[in-house]
């Protein structure tokens, strides 16, 4: 109750005290076509409309590569810097490669928020809005396999890119959790689909050809690769023989859940992630981050009050949306994103 009163009081006086000039914010996803990132855009636009109703106008633009392409993402961000926005919200394709251009944005007085994935150098952004801790995602994926197959499962992983920081961190968390809780569980191989459907499908087919019948599960912690892994298993006639799970939006894998290829999978609400990232970017741009007893907080609209944590899993200045959600045949139709 105290936090809610504090939030409302802060919001009221901030609106009165701050110049209510519009701020310009660009959201740059890894690539624009994925339903996952379309959902983050929708969430951001909901936040824009809420802020407008409070007199805080945001000129919001959503732009990025049409497919996963690090060089194109850097080129787009470079052109956006020249437009002198107040803030950028970016999901980096490559944790290392994006650091330099985002540092340049900060040097030009632009507030930088990373979301969905972070950069390698935390000095390249102001805040990382993380959908869930890396460890919680890794543990969730391992537990789904253990539940679906057993504690001695043999796993193949299809990730996005060798330099995708969030996928690498989730896989590292999986390895650590397996070692601690399921020492007889094994990760046989890690393949990469580069967040492209054709390459992801090929990676899944290569895994099946190389390892079946000595493989029990394919884990795809990317919304592009998970439906492609399910498709490969379906085409190979191995439904029920290879357990498929990972991270994806319900809309991406609904067909495969209903056909029984995917029993359970995980994610968070990408709409809420985009919503929160927009609120954070707006707060930074307007200097609406406030401090209590040495801790910094940001108002996240309907999601509530969020602390900017000084350090989470080795990264500084992080906001965590919340724990992963589990989807299955019983609840998937309750979600439309």
TrEMBL record:
<dbReference type="GO" id="GO:0030246">
    <property type="term" value="F:carbohydrate binding"/>
</dbReference>
<protein>
    <recommendedName>
        <fullName>Autoinducer 2-binding protein LsrB</fullName>
    </recommendedName>
</protein>
<feature type="domain" description="Periplasmic binding protein">
    <location>
        <begin position="25"/>
        <end position="286"/>
    </location>
</feature>
<dbReference type="InterPro" id="IPR050555">
    <property type="entry name" value="Bact_Solute-Bind_Prot2"/>
</dbReference>
<keyword id="KW-0574">Periplasm</keyword>
<dbReference type="InterPro" id="IPR025997">
    <property type="entry name" value="SBP_2_dom"/>
</dbReference>
<dbReference type="Pfam" id="PF13407">
    <property type="entry name" value="Peripla_BP_4"/>
</dbReference>
<dbReference type="InterPro" id="IPR028082">
    <property type="entry name" value="Peripla_BP_I"/>
</dbReference>
<comment type="subunit">
    <text>The complex is composed of two ATP-binding proteins (LsrA), two transmembrane proteins (LsrC and LsrD) and a solute-binding protein (LsrB).</text>
</comment>
<dbReference type="GO" id="GO:0043190">
    <property type="term" value="C:ATP-binding cassette (ABC) transporter complex"/>
</dbReference>
<dbReference type="GO" id="GO:0030288">
    <property type="term" value="C:outer membrane-bounded periplasmic space"/>
</dbReference>
<keyword id="KW-0449">Lipoprotein</keyword>
<comment type="function">
    <text>Part of the ABC transporter complex LsrABCD involved in autoinducer 2 (AI-2) import. Binds AI-2 and delivers it to the LsrC and LsrD permeases.</text>
</comment>
<keyword id="KW-0732">Signal</keyword>
<dbReference type="InterPro" id="IPR030159">
    <property type="entry name" value="LsrB"/>
</dbReference>
